[in-house]
């Protein structure tokens, strides 16, 4: 059994957690920064980085105190080393390096996407490799075959916006507030998903890639038409995203016949409509469906500590020269999606 301290600071959540390799979460805390970013309607990287500097040390002290442990008790220190907003990533990674240096404990530099990718295993002991993963967050929208720790095959990615980004931008267009995903989901509850005809980009195409930029533009046109209530546009938008995710994931299922389960992770996996539709898809293919609890979908440090524990036990520790990386694809061999922008 190993005990890992995890640190997460790649976007606007400052988080620390203590997780054991037997899946016990001894303590975990997430400090959001919504009030700092709300006036700007989105995450301001510089403000986020400064907030991590102020919040993180106290948060680490809190999780240690809560678990009644000292730094000397942990086996390794794991921190997100990318991808993400580089200022924030540096705060968490350098904090972990300082602690590793002072305590003589090994450092594990964790890819934030690997944190999301392995998170479903933390709460589901029955989940086994290989599985098909839909990773849907604010920065990414990918389908991955997860073959093992550090072993990922990217089957598809978005050629423009990530799904969470589309939620956030649509929320802003509709004046629903920040953060956008939960705001759109809440508004959609009192809307009609058939009220507005919106496109389903790439649905039916052979490669399982995603595209959401056109959908966002269609939301803007619907709003400007003055014909619809914001709730109806939100519900129609959410339904369009769900339809795209289901169609593209169905395509990917056929490419990974060896998959033991259909798994969803990342912030958008907190969405009930998304979870419901994917449950139906998995059922239709005779696959178990696995989704982490809501708190584990959005950014947190328990998933970083857990990925750190699996990497540590596989002998994958890092030197104190480990780089902070703004971009860091999980599958470096993946081909660029046709028409893709610069996203990893
Ligand atoms: O995984 P995450 O916390 O951070 C990234 O790594 O990006 O994902 C954040 C994204 C945001 O775009 C947020 O709007 C979206 O996940 N999100 C949701 C919901 N909760 C968070 N999207 C739709 N429905 C939700 N309930
Ligand atoms: Zn994330």
Can you offer a commentary on this structure?
The protein has 344 residues and is α/β, with parallel strands linked by helices. It folds into two domains: 3-117 and 296-313, 2-Layer Sandwich (Nucleotidyltransferase, domain 5), CATH 3.30.420; 129-294, Nucleotidyltransferase, domain 5. 42% of the residues lie in helices and 17% in strands. The chain is built from eleven helices and ten strands. It has helices at residues 34-37, 45-66, 86-103, 112-123, 163-173, 180-188, 213-225, 230-255, 272-284, 294-297, 302-313; strands spanning 3-8, 13-20, 25-32, 76-82, 107-111, 131-136, 141-148, 151-156, 262-265, 289-290. The strands form two sheets. It has a five-stranded mixed beta sheet, with helices on both faces. It has a five-stranded mixed beta sheet with strand order 8-7-6-9-10, sandwiched between helices. It is globular. The two termini are 34 Å apart. The model has no long low-confidence stretch (mean pLDDT 96). 5'-O-[(R)-(carboxyoxy)(hydroxy)phosphoryl]adenosine binds next to helix 5 and helix 6.
